[in-house]
Structures are given as structure tokens and as C-alpha cells.
């Protein structure tokens, strides 16, 4: 049965965030809010968590998982970024964007796109997600909480708790999340390619 954490959306309670982080460190899979919609998250090296995300979302091995990072310095440890791409991403973060980039050796092989050797990275503009990332001191391996055959992500913490009670370890609820996932920009070829139009403004990448 999943633990349920009710968190203030702008001033997350430190003790509560610490409890969520402890759950993640001990191998837990959590549903947590971001600036686009709810996401599923676990530690980077958590193979069971990765497997559960694949199972919950019915994902194949071509799915780009996302490393949700606290800041640009952390993001830079996990992807290769040249100067032009650096400037474009820096101007758009934090925000509702996921960037697909060539991965460094810090990224576990099972997270990489099998042919491109790329991974998604993002820095959310959300107080609760940022507090959790700060407490963890490392990125969260994440994927949008969009269930198979459903058009929109789940937006209510209580509903997530109800429907995923036996497949996640914790639900972090700070009120309604949006239904629009991040805008996805693929920089792996050197030029910006808009893969998905979502919550982030796309004009600067066109």
C-alpha cells in the first residue's frame, strides 16, 4: 500500500520531503508533481523501479526516460552539450521542457535509447519537485504518469493513490497538476528538433 504525503505547493514541509526522499533511497517508486504533470520517479540505479515504470506505462525499449535534475550543473554530468545547445537549454530552464541529448557514461545503459545512446533530461520549475531533488542530491529517473490507453495524465493525488496503490510506494500530493506534458526537444543531431509540443513554448526552437 502506497504512503500518501500531502505537501504544501509553495513551501513544502522539510520533514515530509525528507520522508519521501528516504522512500526513494530505499528503492521506492513515487508519484510526484512537476510543472507539467505528475511523474513516476525512482533512483537512477533502481532496476526494479525502472521495471515497474515500464510495466505501469506499458513502455517498450525505445522509450526515452528522463533524468529530472535540480540544476544545470547536475544536468551537465549526464549529457554531452556543446556551446550552442548549452545556450539554448540554459535560456529555457527551469521549465516545462525535456531535452534529448547524447548521454555520458554516468547514465546506466538500460536507460539509453538502444540505437542513439541518448537520454532525456529536464529541470522542473516546481517548488515540490525542486525540494525533493535538493533533498536527494541526485536526479530522479522519471516518466510522465500517463497510463496505457488514456489520453491524459492523472491530475489528482487521491486518484493516483486509489488506482496505483499496490504498484507505487508513495504518492506526493501538492494539489492539481496540469494535464499537458513537457515539450520535448531533440538536440542529439546538433539541431533542435521538436519531438512533442507540450507545456513549454516552442518558438525559440523553430
Automatic annotation (TrEMBL):
EC number, as in UniProt: 2.7.7.87
Query: Superkingdom, according to UniProt?
Result: Bacteria
Has keyword Transmembrane?
no
Q: Does the keyword Metal-binding apply?
A: no
UniProtKB keywords: Nucleotidyltransferase, Transferase
Q: What class of enzyme is it?
A: transferase
Pfam families associated with the record: Sua5_yciO_yrdC
Q: Which positions fall inside the YrdC-like domain?
A: 14-200
Molecular function in Gene Ontology: L-threonylcarbamoyladenylate synthase
Q: Which InterPro entries match?
A: DHBP_synth_RibB-like_a/b_dom (IPR017945), Sua5-like_dom (IPR006070), SUA5_domain (IPR052532)
NCBIfam families the record matches: L-threonylcarbamoyladenylate synthase (TIGR00057)
Protein name stated in the entry: L-threonylcarbamoyladenylate synthase
Give the source species: Streptomyces ficellus
Amino acid at each position: 500500500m502506497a504512503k500518501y504525503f500531502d505537501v504544501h505547493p509553495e513551501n513544502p514541509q522539510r520533514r515530509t520531503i525528507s520522508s519521501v526522499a528516504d522512500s526513494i533511497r530505499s528503492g521506492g517508486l513515487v508519484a510526484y508533481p512537476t510543472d507539467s504533470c505528475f511523474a513516476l520517479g525512482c533512483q537512477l540505479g533502481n532496476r526494479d523501479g525502472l521495471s515497474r515504470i515500464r510495466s505501469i506505462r506499458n513502455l517498450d525499449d525505445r522509450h526515452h526516460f528522463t533524468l529530472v535534475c535540480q540544476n544545470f550543473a547536475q544536468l551537465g554530468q549526464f549529457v554531452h552539450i556543446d556551446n550552442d545547445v548549452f545556450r539554448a537549454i540554459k535560456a529555457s530552464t527551469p521549465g516545462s521542457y525535456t531535452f534529448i541529448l547524447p548521454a555520458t557514461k554516468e547514465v546506466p545503459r538500460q536507460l539509453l535509447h538502444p540505437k542513439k545512446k541518448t537520454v532525456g533530461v529536464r529541470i522542473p520549475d516546481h517548488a515540490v519537485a525542486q525540494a525533493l531533488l535538493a533533498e536527494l542530491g541526485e536526479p530522479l529517473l522519471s516518466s510522465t504518469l500517463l497510463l496505457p490507453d488514456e489520453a491524459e495524465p492523472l491530475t489528482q493525488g487521491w486518484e493516483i493513490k486509489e488506482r496505483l496503490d499496490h504498484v507505487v510506494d508513495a504518492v506526493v500530493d501538492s494539489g492539481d497538476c496540469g494535464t499537458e506534458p513537457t515539450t520535448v526537444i531533440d538536440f542529439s543531431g546538433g539541431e533542435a528538433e521538436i519531438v512533442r509540443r507540450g507545456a513549454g513554448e516552442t518558438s525559440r526552437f523553430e
